[in-house]
Structures are given as C-alpha cells and as structure tokens.
C-alpha cells in the first residue's frame, strides 16, 4: 500500500526524504586535517552558579549497582527542602496581604511547586521496565528486527527486555532508550550517524552507545587551558558518564549526564540535505571522519565533505558549553539547552527564527567560519521586550518543534509565562497570527492559565496547566493533531490561538455547525471528568498523553500506526484511550510509565520489570 504523504503547501521548508544516502555536491568549505589540528578552543567561562535544588546532601544519582534506597533518600531530602521553601514563601505572602492584588501569587506558587516536585520525582523515582513500540519501522526505528517493518499496537522490543529502561525518545527515523544504569541504547536509521554506534542488523536491533567521556575543556574541566589528555586515557581513567536524559531529534541525538555535560551525535541537516556538526574539543583525538572509509570515496565525492564542521558525527562528542546544563531539547536540525543558572542557549541549523535570533543566509557558498560562529556556537535567544525595560527571566522549560521553539519562563516578580519563536505559517506559535518570529514572544492568551508543561510538534504546539487537567493546542490541524474535530479537517487547516482539548468530552454532533473545525465548547467541558496529565509528547503529526492513572491517550495522523490504535489507517481526530495488550511473564497487563512520539512511530516504557 502506498503511504499517504504529508502535504507541503510551499510555505514551509521542504520535507526531507525518509532515508537519503546521496551526498550533496555543495560541501565545499570543510577544514583540512592540518588546519583542524591547529584549531584552538574558544575561551569558555566557567559558571559558579549552583543548581538551586542542591543542598549539602549530595545529589549525584547513584548507579543501579548502588542502593535504590539511597536514591529515594536523596529524593525525600530534596522534597523536604522544597516543602520548606514553599512554606517560607507562603508565610511571606500571608504577612504582606497588601502586596497581593488577586490569587495570581498563590496560583504561581502552586505552579512552581508542582513543577519542581514533578522534576524531582522524575529524576530520582523513575519506574523502570521494558520498551514497547508501534508505528512505521521501515528504517529499523522499531528495533524489532528486519521482519517487523510496522506495528499497529504496542510491541515489546525483545533486544531491550530486562534492561530496566526508564525513558525513551523517538526521533525522526531512530529511537533512543535510557536504562537505570545510565546507559544509552539506540536503533534505526544511521545514515546521518544518529544511532551513534556501529549498527546491528542494519539498524533494526538495539545497540549500546558508548563514548560519553567528558572533555577537560567542558564546564566540569580544570580551567581554560587544561593539559590535553587523549580520549582513550580519559576514558580509561573516568569511564563512561552516567546519562540522565536523552533526546532524539530528526537526524541528531543528544544526551545529558548527571554532571551537566551535553553530548551530541548525528548531524544537523539543512533544507538541501547538507550535513553539519561541531568541531570536537582538542582532547578528542578520535578519527575526524568517523566511520567513513576515505579509501572508498566515489569519483564525485570530496574528502572535505566528511571533515568537521561537515559530515556525520558517528559517536557521542562532548559539547563544551560555558556551564552545566539541566535540560535539553532537539528539533529538526537544531537544539536548545537550559543552564544551571536558569538561562538558555540554542544552536544548530535553524534559519526560520527557531533559535530565537536572526542568522545569515545559509547556502552552498557559506563559509565554515560563518557556520561555526553564527549557527553551531550555542548562544542565548533574543527576547521580545515590551517597552524599554529588560526583564530577568528564569527559564524552566524548553521544547523544540521542527522549526519553532517553546519556552516556559518566569519574570522577576511575575508568574510563569510561555514564549515562542520560529516558523509560524500554521499558527503554531499561538500568537493569533501566522507571522514568523525571530525573537521569543510572549503568548498572551496563555497568561494567567498557569501553564506548567509545553510540548512542540512538527507544526503544532501543546500546553498543559499546573493542575494537569487543562490541555491547550494550536497550529496545524488537518491530520487531527489538535484533537478538536469530528470530521477530517480540510488540508492546511490550523488554529493560530490555543484552544482547549479535553481528553474526555461528549460531542453532540447534531448541534455542531462545522464538524471539520473546532467542535469543543469550553463551557461544556466537565472538569471533574478530566484525567490528570502526567506527561505529554508530540510526534511530528500525533500526540501521546500519559495520565496519573497510567492511561495513555493518542490522536493525530493514523496511517503510519504511530497512534497505536489498531489496524485502521484513519486519522484519530479526538483523544482516544490506547488499549495496551502488553503483558508480563505472569500474564498481568503492564502499565505504561513513559511515552514518546517520533516522526511516524512511537515508543513507550511499560513496567514489565517495574522497580520503584
């Protein structure tokens, strides 16, 4: 059966082919090996800002060989500190009633507490299990072997059974899994190096990703001019870093260690298919060309195409950021990170405003120097300031869509706000129009709605408030990805202002004037019937929601099977509960503990080996 292609109206970057192995002839500005060896690192500053959640008690996450009880003890200590801080702030508010004009201060306090408490729980009290996948697997992204090219309902990845996986990340055509031991496994398309290891069974089987060895030039290094020690020597001395977060982009992968170091592998692709990557730190002496055999170049290929900042990054490379990171996210060909001081940076091949700043035109004549300085160097985004005042913001959440960015931030003396920037031809920025933004701009509609979770899809966005019971979405809707229609929306349909999306809602079709449009009447939503949302994940054109009760709802593009709703190829237009048939060895139904939506597939963690 011919798969339905996502329609392109010509106002967006061209969708890249699913699996391209051709090499662009425009790679003509690579650095020579001699020049590369002479490169010196930029003078990075070292941060003295401590993580606000730390205390005198060590917060280093113990490996699984250590006591799980110790990890829970750390969680209880950190939660006690958070509770005390919340108590002090509440007492301050009560003692100064004149400074409280309405309930906004209390609601902001509740939202902040909820966000911090959830963050601590997800960090220290994960539930581990096995990985189940569903959707299209033509490039191995399901990890179930070459005999399984698709799955219409959740299917266990046998190669990861018993690995105690805590989280997964589904990318464009590859998937990452993170175990309790802090180890990363990967499978799927490796044409751009996104798997990060030598593939097994042409990428159809999980492989362990290794090479998470910190550079001395990173935020945890020994200064601006450390002694250069070889990668092999540092690996023998330090071993592999313990990874605590994984992110799969379109053709890139990112990992965050417990020490705040960020690692990258894969490549950042532009709209013409050209591949880019970072210059490795001076103490990373591994082969510049990765796994490419330079003796087998075709006549129309050039060596410079495979030297940084061009080509694939075939294994994890330490990104020497200016300070420790606490959160990471990846989009189509770019990425973002939050620092320990609650500021943020963006980097990559983002030419549509998604990085929150203007960049030079990128084409085949663009020099490596411009690519390195203007694109690949992490820089803070620009905020669209109202008036002449410059606000101090604390960034608490980020989410990268294909070509747009969502940011959750708190201004001094104010509550939480949501900002957006980037491509906006479908209203995915939630600003009520379709104008592209090159600066982070506040979404006024979401003010006073106490948004606590943000999630960006390909051309749409989702927002969840602090109670977990109010979900909003905006952007492209023609595949049902907004979850608000009774009938298939017209091609190119969208909502430029966030609309309410109830998970449970009875629609009287006889009174709906436009079944292809927004069929939700917010005043008729029965609030007490709404499940509390624990986690939300947006794929390219579908959405997965995990509730506190352990139920999963999905909606959106149905033909690939990424919604997991069975054999039907129809788009899922309204949130629909996912029936999980996965069972453990005792025959009991397994609860879902983590969800992730990818390009045309999804991955979830099921507690078949639950360890709380």
Automatic annotation (TrEMBL):
Entry keyword annotation includes DNA repair:
no
| Residue intervals passing through the bilayer | none
Instruction: Keyword check for Acyltransferase, yes or no.
Output: no
What is a single Pfam family found in this protein's UniProt entry? WD40_RLD
Q: Where are the RCC repeats?
A: 129-181, 182-259, 342-411, 416-467, 469-549, 550-608
Superkingdom is Eukaryota
Keyword terms: Guanine-nucleotide releasing factor, Repeat
Start and end residues of each stretch annotated as Disordered: 1-68
Composition bias type Polar residues, residue spans: 18-27, 45-65
Q: Which Gene3D superfamilies match?
A: Regulator of chromosome condensation 1/beta-lactamase-inhibitor protein II (2.130.10.30)
Show where the RCC1-like domain sits: 131-604
| SUPFAM superfamilies in UniProt | RCC1/BLIP-II (SSF50985)
Q: What is this protein called?
A: RCC1-like domain-containing protein
């Amino acid at each position: 059966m011919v798969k339905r292609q996502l329609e392109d109206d010509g106002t967006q970057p061209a969708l890249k082919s699913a699996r391209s192995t051709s090499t662009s002839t425009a790679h003509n500005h690579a650095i020579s090996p001699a020049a590369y060896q002479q490169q010196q690192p930029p003078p990075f500053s070292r941060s003295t800002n401590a993580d606000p959640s730390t205390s005198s008690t060590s917060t280093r996450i113990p490996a699984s060989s250590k006591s799980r009880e110790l990890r829970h003890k750390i969680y209880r200590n950190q939660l006690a500190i958070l509770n005390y801080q919340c108590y002090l702030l509440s007492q301050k508010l009560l003692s100064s009633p004149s400074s409280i004009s309405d309930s906004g201060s209390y609601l902001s306090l509740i939202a902040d507490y909820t966000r911090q408490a959830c963050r601590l729980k997800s960090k220290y009290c994960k539930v581990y299990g096995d990985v189940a996948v569903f959707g299209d697997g033509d490039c191995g992204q399901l990890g179930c072997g070459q005999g399984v090219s698709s799955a219409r309902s959740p299917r266990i990845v046998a190669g990861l059974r018993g690995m105690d996986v805590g989280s997964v990340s589904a990318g464009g055509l590859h998937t990452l899994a993170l175990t309790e031991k802090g180890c990363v496994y990967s499978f799927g398309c490796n044409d751009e190096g996104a798997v990060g290891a030598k593939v097994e069974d042409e990428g159809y089987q999980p492989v362990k990703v290794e090479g998470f060895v910190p550079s001395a030039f990173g935020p945890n290094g020994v200064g601006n001019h450390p002694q250069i020690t070889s990668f092999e020597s540092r690996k023998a001395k330090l071993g592999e870093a313990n990874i605590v977060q994984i992110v799969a982009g379109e053709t890139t992968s990112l990992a965050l260690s417990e020490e705040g170091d960020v690692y990258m592998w894969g490549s950042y692709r532009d709209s013409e298919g050209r591949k880019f990557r970072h210059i490795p730190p001076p103490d990373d002496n591994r082969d510049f060309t990765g796994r490419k055999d330079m003796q087998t170049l075709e006549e129309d290929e050039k060596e410079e195409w495979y030297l940084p900042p061009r080509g694939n990054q075939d294994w994890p490379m330490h990104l020497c950021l200016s300070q420790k990171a606490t959160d990471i996210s990846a989009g189509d060909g770019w990425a973002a990170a939050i620092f320990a001081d609650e500021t943020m940076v963006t980097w990559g091949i983002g030419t549509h405003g998604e990085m929150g700043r203007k960049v030079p035109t990128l084409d085949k004549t663009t020099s490596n120097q411009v690519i390195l300085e203007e694109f690949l160097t992490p820089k803070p985004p620009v905020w669209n300031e109202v008036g002449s005042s410059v606000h101090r913001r604390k960034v608490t959440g980020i989410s990268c869509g294909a070509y747009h960015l969502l940011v959750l931030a708190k201004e001094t003396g104010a509550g939480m706000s949501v900002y957006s920037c980037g491509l906006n031809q479908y209203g995915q920025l939630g600003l009520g129009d379709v104008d592209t933004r090159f600066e982070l701009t506040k979404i006024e509609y979401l003010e006073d709605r106490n948004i606590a979770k943000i999630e960006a899809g390909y051309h749409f966005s989702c927002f969840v408030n602090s109670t977990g019971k109010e979900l909003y979405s905006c952007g492209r809707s023609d595949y049902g990805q907004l979850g608000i229609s009774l009938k298939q929306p017209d091609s190119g349909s969208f909502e430029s202002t966030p609309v309410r999306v109830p998970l449970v809602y009875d629609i009287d079709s006889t009174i709906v004037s436009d079944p292809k449009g927004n069929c939700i009447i917010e005043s008729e939503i029965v609030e007490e019937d709404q499940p509390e949302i624990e986690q939300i994940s947006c794929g390219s054109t579908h959405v997965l929601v995990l509730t506190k009760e352990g139920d999963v709802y999905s909606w959106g593009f149905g033909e690939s099977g990424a919604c997991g709703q069975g054999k039907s190829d129809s788009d899922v237009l309204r949130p629909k509960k996912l029936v999980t048939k996965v069972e453990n060895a005792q025959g009991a139904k397994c609860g879902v503990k983590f969800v992730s939506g990818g390009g045309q597939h999804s991955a979830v963690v099921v507690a078949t080996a639950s360890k709380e």
